[in-house]
Backbone:
């Protein structure tokens, strides 16, 4: 692996840990959907802080995953060709998705119902009998598989022919282009949320967030083709880092104002429809995302790009951690349920222990001959 790629794998490990902490935050009062919630979202200070943590993550971290996945898609396709690449995508994405739908998702749901006194096996039987599909965080694998197949179709019919050295370096786009892209993603997101609000799943996918995901996957494709990650400089990112600092407080301020004005229906709705709150949230997301992603990229490329045995160990297990973390997080949070403690303290301890447990449990999994080629 080229030395400049070390930091990309480390970023994926960090984002994986953030996914675990994100779901831990929901467990203890943050806004969002998860298998088990010990505290409901409320006006409590801890709930508001965890909600802002979740909203900030949601603005960029899954889009960041798509950007990094897009970055590695063209060279993989160039190297493997269409049949082998598509087979590899089904093995690496389709099989974990299927395993979660058939095993990990039902087991995680059953752990919760067993704790609540409704039994473990009755839940498993109910889910299978009623053909309830739980894709959990593996919605990302589902979406990435779709994106990869669409890219193959586009490349086969409209794109350049496969070539092992198909990069053509060009300068990183100027600020104005990124600004127009942020506004375009905002407009499309608002349009989508007129029909599919945030929180509503279609085939297990929250399509309200997909305008940003699709754009960032395309950015990843272009970033490899034009060698943008190597060329990205602080001067390119500085306007977006400033925008991040200015934009981030706008959402908590908007939440406070919306609650103050909440004298009629829909005033505090940030999820769907057409209101100033929906516009604010849709506009806030790309301005936070573009700044956060560029900041992470530059910090890790400049300061976290040296060989490291520890990072290599963490990186090799990150995908397995992403797949298996739901039942582990739910089990640990239920284990701590009887403990009376502040929500933020439980969030910190449960999240930390879950990260450690997931990486340790993933270690033997990635060594198994059959699984190691998939995860």
Residues:
């Amino acid at each position: 692996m080229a030395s400049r790629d070390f930091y990309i794998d480390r970023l994926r490990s960090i984002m994986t840990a953030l996914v675990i902490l994100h779901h831990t935050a929901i467990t203890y009062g943050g806004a969002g959907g998860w298998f088990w919630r010990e505290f409901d979202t409320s006006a409590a200070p801890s709930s508001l802080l965890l909600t802002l943590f979740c909203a900030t993550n949601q603005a960029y971290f899954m889009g960041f995953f798509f950007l990094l996945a897009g970055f590695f898609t063209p060279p993989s396709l160039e190297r493997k060709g269409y049949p082998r690449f598509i087979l590899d995508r089904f093995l690496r994405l389709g099989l974990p998705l299927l395993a979660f739908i058939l095993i990990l998702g039902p087991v995680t749901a059953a752990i919760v119902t067993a704790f609540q006194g409704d039994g473990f096996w009755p839940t498993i039987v109910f889910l299978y009998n009623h053909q309830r599909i739980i894709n959990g965080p593996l919605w990302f694998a589902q979406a990435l598989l779709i994106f990869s197949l669409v890219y193959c179709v586009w490349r086969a019919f409209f794109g350049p022919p496969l070539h092992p050295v198909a990069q053509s370096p060009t300068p990183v786009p100027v600020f104005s282009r990124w600004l127009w892209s942020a506004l375009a993603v905002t407009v499309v997101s608002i349009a989508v949320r007129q029909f599919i609000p945030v929180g509503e799943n279609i085939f297990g996918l929250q399509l309200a967030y997909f305008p940003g995901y699709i754009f960032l996957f395309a950015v990843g494709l272009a970033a490899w083709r034009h060698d943008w990650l190597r060329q990205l400089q602080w001067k390119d990112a500085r306007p977006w880092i400033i925008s991040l600092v200015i934009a981030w407080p706008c959402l908590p301020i908007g939440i406070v104002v919306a609650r103050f004005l909440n004298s009629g229906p829909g005033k505090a709705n940030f999820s769907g429809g057409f209101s100033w709150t929906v516009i604010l949230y849709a506009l806030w997301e790309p301005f936070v995302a573009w700044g956060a992603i560029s900041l992470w990229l530059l910090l890790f490329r400049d300061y976290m790009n040296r060989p490291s045995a520890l990072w290599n160990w963490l990186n090799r297990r990150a995908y397995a951690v992403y797949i298996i973390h739901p039942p582990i997080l739910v089990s640990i949070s239920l284990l701590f349920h009887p403990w009376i403690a502040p929500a933020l303290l439980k969030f910190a301890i449960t999240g930390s222990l879950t990260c450690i447990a997931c990486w340790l449990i993933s270690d033997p999994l990635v060594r198994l001959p059959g699984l190691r080629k998939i995860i």
In short: Residues 98 and 135 are 8 Å apart (CA to CA).
